[in-house]
Amino acid sequence: MGSLSELDALYAFLVAAAVAALLTPVTMRLARAVGAVDEPRERGLSDRPTPLLGGTAIFAGVLVAALIFLPQGYGRGSHLWDGVLLGAALITLVGALDDRFDLPPAVKLAGQVAAAVIVVHYGVVVKEITLPFVGKLAAPNAGATNAGPALTVVGLVVMMNVVNFSDGADGLAAGVCAIIAAAMAVLAFDLGRAPPGVLAALTAGAAVGFLIHNFPPASSFMGDCGSNLLGLLIGCITVEAAVKTAAVVSFVLPLILLAVPFLDTTFVVLKRLKYRQPIYRPDSEHFHHRMARIGFSRRRTIAYFYVWTLLWAGLALALRFVPYSNHHGRLHLGWTLVMVALALVVVAASVYLIYVLEILKFRRLDAVRLRRLRPAASASGAEHWTGQRQVDEDRIGAEEERGDTQAPIAADRR
Fold first, then answer.
1. Which domain holds residue 26?
2. pLDDT at 325
3. pLDDT at position 284, please?
4. 265 within domain boundaries
5. Which end of the chain is more exposed for a tag (fewer CB within 10 A), N or C?
6. Distance between CA 275 and CA 372 in Å, rounded?
């Protein structure tokens, strides 16, 4: 196969989407046959038994498209993509076993580490990064200080858990990952990284193909096998498509693209740490749970997530394509103002959503909102109400810490 083009990426996207869409009904029958079915839970968001193992269809789409479009002879030892597919197969198997048998957290973590070690062994490894205003930073890669591979393994495991944690509503993880992977495909080709760009495109295609069956009301859930798989693939794409390049914004762009799932995971983990709960223990504090509590429908919830992710993706693409700099440290005033305005819009939208979800406590703003809802309420009454709500939440947290009240439980996986 010759050099890859954007047309190859489009074909890979379509093949992966078709395979995943066609095989998802097969995985649904398999899941029911082996008992891998997600049952409605008290604090979950599903209202009927739904088959898991949709991630195996995503893997099939990725595998078929990769075998057709990804070239041999790329990367260290000419087998980099073999390592990616082998690691993907392992994490899909571990996730499928977890969907059926609910594996202990330590076993799941061991599977994630093993999959990450495989892809790093085959060459998906960060040895240096390029930071704005700093330049290249090389990781120690000699002897006992061989930090590059170790840090890459940690990053891939974190990425798998970020996607896994955020997979809790119909169409959420599949749609968000499809948007992120599609944006990464565009960036990869612009950075001259065509093979990772094709991997990103077929990953987006497999997610979109599965989304046909996962859009609310979902008839299939991807399960841990799907969320871990997508997390691993996006991690590999991030390393190969952006972080390994010498572009000044190469390290910043993935962080911007992954802002939404990382924000969700960060707030949830901090909440669990605050009340001294294990970070792997599922709860009902994810963004999508909060949206459900304030009355959002499933489709409205994922619409907000899709738009939020698209905003961050647009900002990442703008940083690469808008000519705000001459790449030698000199800024063009007009385009710089455009970028600042775009960044302010994205940040303002994020802050507004965080306020709506009541993730951070803005007592004065809460008082204003209460007065609008209840014109007769006095300011002092509103302040008392918001203060009392904080007291109640702190009481609940203290009870959870003592064990007097069961901490909220809901499935992180779909």
1. 6-259
2. 78
3. 76
4. no
5. N
6. 33
CA atoms within 13 A on the CB side of 355: 14
Q: Give CA–CA dist 235/118, Å, rounded.
A: 13
Closest CA to 299 of 168, 163, 165, 172: 172
In this prediction, residue 77 carries a pLDDT of 45
Burial of 313 (C-beta count, 10 Å sphere; 0-12/13-18/19+)? buried
Number of domains the chain contains: 1
In angstroms, the Cα distances linking 311 to 250, 283, 302, 383 are 19, 27, 14, 34
CA distance 346 to 339: 11
Strands 135-138 and 128-131: antiparallel
Angstrom distance (rounded) from CA 225 to CA 97: 8
- What is the distance between the alpha carbons of residues 53 and 185, in angstroms, rounded to a whole number? 26
Measuring CA to CA, how many Å separate 29 from each of 174, 217, 220? 20, 18, 10
The pLDDT value given to residue 406: 38
Report the Cα–Cα distance between both ends of the chain, in Å, rounded.
37
- Tell me what pLDDT residue 126 has: 84
Adjacent-strand bridge partners of 135 = 131
Exposed, middle or buried: residue 268 (CB in 10 Å: 0-12, 13-18, 19+)? buried
Provide the 10 A C-beta neighbour count for residue 117. 19
Q: Is residue 395 part of a domain?
A: no
User: What integer pLDDT is reported at residue 365 of this predicted model?
Assistant: 57
CA dihedral 187, 193, 199, 202 (to 10 degrees): 50
Taking the C-alpha atoms of residue 240 and residue 245, their distance in angstroms, rounded to an integer, is 8
Whether residue 1 is contained in a domain is answered as: no
- List, for the chain, all residue ranges whose pLDDT scores fall below the cut of 70: 1-2, 42-46, 72-78, 128-146, 244-251, 327-329, 358-414
Residue 344 falls within a domain, yes or no? no
